[in-house]
Amino acid sequence: MPSGFHHITLNVRDLDRARHFYGEILALPADQDFPGEKLRYRVPGTDTRLVLKPPLPGTPDGDRFSEHRIGLDHIALGVASREELEHLVETLDTHHVEHSGVHHDRMGPAMVTFRDPDNYQWEYFEDVSQSNQ
């Protein structure tokens, strides 16, 4: 039986831009960097890796992610507290990244929604199971 996600791979237009966004803005810890080939980050608190690769041959110039196609819709991660969400908002503001602000999902937990430079939608949720411990 699976014990969790090993990795998620996203094709990105520009590895240097992705390095700045995921490494500097989101502060994901780098795991491996193969210049020009791929970047790999650890998702904190998990055994999951986020792998970023350049577009596959045949990808149209200027192509961006869209959830209006079959496939991935968005990626959601949990954080330990509302304070972490508020810190994320401050960081996104500092780097001029549009976001939803801290708001409540219709299911209840606080969350922040934003997009990366390739238009992948990310959601960070307050993990209420962690904050109640």
Write the layout of secondary structure elements.
Layout: E1 7-11, H1 15-25, E2 30-34, E3 38-42, E4 49-53, E5 75-79, H2 82-94, E6 103-104, E7 110-115, E8 121-126, H3 128-131
Parallel strand pairs: 1-4, 5-8
Antiparallel strand pairs: 2-3, 3-4, 6-7, 7-8
- Estimated structural class: alpha/beta
Describe the main β-sheet briefly. 4 strands, mixed
Multimerization state:
single chain
Radius of gyration, CA atoms, in whole angstroms: 15 Å
> How many E-type strands?
8
pLDDT average, as an integer? 91
Given the structure, what is the number of helices?
A: 3
Cα(first) to Cα(last) distance is 28 Å
Strand content: 25-35%
Order of helices and strands: EHEEEEHEEEH
Determine the fraction of residues in helical runs and give it as a percent range: 10-25%
Overall geometric form? globular
Placed side by side, the strands forming the largest sheet appear as: 1-4-3-2
Which regions are unreliable across 5 or more consecutive residues at pLDDT < 50? Answer: none
Summary, kept brief:
The protein has 133 residues and is of the alpha/beta class.
What does this structure look like?
With 133 residues, the chain is an alpha/beta fold. It has 3 helices and 8 strands; from the N terminus they run βαββββαβββα. The longest helix has 13 residues, at 82-94.
Pick out its properties.
133 residues, 4-stranded mixed sheet, single chain, alpha/beta, 3 helices
